Amino acid sequence: MHVIKLEDCEEFVSRDGARLREMLHPDKAVLDLRYSLAHAIVEPGLSTAEHRLAASEVYYLLSGKGLMHIDGDEEEVSAGCTVYIPPGSVQKITNTGSDDLVFLCIVDPAWQEHLEEIL
């Protein structure tokens, strides 16, 4: 059994500016995974940098509200929303609320620095 506690995962600032805790990654544990899973926070009034991944990505919003931008389209998102981001899409998320925007990020295949472009 492999149980990960969020508080045991080191927090860092990602290249796009979100506060992240990487919970699952095939390069960091002996697990049969294709994907990576991270917990992300964007503070009120902030946005992640525009970026694109060669992989597909899914955001699942846990709390807060924001505006999701994908390839020029925008849509309001909030807790309980799931967002699919196709590979190669230009994306960013803006926290439009007064509380932290907290979400899970699933990247498939697993996130690799060389597969992400900050714009």
Give a structural overview.
There is one protein chain. The protein is mostly beta strands. It has a single domain, classed as Jelly Rolls. It is built from no helices and eleven strands. It has strands at 11-13, 19-24, 36-42, 51-53, 56-63, 65-70, 73-78, 82-85, 91-95, 101-108, 116-118. It has a six-stranded antiparallel beta sheet, with no helix packed on it. It has a three-stranded antiparallel beta sheet with strand order 7-6-9, with no helix packed on it. Strands 4-11 form a two-stranded antiparallel ribbon. A hairpin with a 2-residue loop joins strand 6 (65-70) and strand 7. The model has no long low-confidence stretch (mean pLDDT 96).
Brief descriptors of the model:
119 residues; mainly beta; Jelly Rolls; 6-stranded antiparallel β-sheet; 3-stranded antiparallel β-sheet; 11 strands; 50% strand
The first-to-last residue Cα distance is 39 Å
How many separate helices? 0
What would you report as the Rg, rounded to the nearest angstrom? 14 Å
CATH superfamily: Jelly Rolls
CATH class: Mainly Beta
Q: What's the number of extended β-strand segments?
A: 11
- Beta content comes to over 45%
Give me the CATH architecture, please: Sandwich
Q: Which structural class should the secondary elements be placed in? A: mainly beta
For this structure, the CATH topology is Jelly Rolls
Main β sheet profile: 6 strands, antiparallel
Number of separate domains: 1
Strand order of the largest sheet: 1-2-3-10-5-8
**Helix-strand pattern:** EEEEEEEEEEE
Rounded average pLDDT: 96
Instruction: Report the principal-axis shape.
Output: globular
List low-pLDDT spans. Answer: none
Helix content: under 10%
